Amino acid sequence: MRRETIRKLLRNYKNVVFTKKAEIRCVQRGIDKKLVEDNVLNPRPLIYVIDEGQPTPYEHKYKLGFRLSNARTLIVRITINKRIKIITSYIILNKVQKGLWLRWTK
After folding, report:
1. What is d(CA 59, CA 51) in angstroms, rounded to the nearest whole number?
2. Is the dihedral of CA 45, 47, 26, 13 positive or negative?
3. How many CA atoms lie within 13 Å of 73's alpha carbon, on the beta-carbon side?
4. What's the pLDDT tens digit per position in 41-68?
């Protein structure tokens, strides 16, 4: 899906539900849940969207990348059906991400 389409879709939702695993990972990785929630509900800094398929007929799974700064990107995996469910989130350095993208595009 295109980035603008996902932005419009995410803006229609009012709340986000974290899975138990996502809550634990946020604490372990030092990521504020409010940061994840704000970025998903207001996706201005959204830089890329990867469609990860449809696990069930009523769900869509996406991997979203949000620019936090020039050096860091927040990666969030979500499923969307009647609500947005956060599966996991982590922060990656842009240097590392650039190296991975170069490897994947070859």
Report:
1. 12
2. positive
3. 17
4. 999 899 989 888 887 888 899 999 999 9
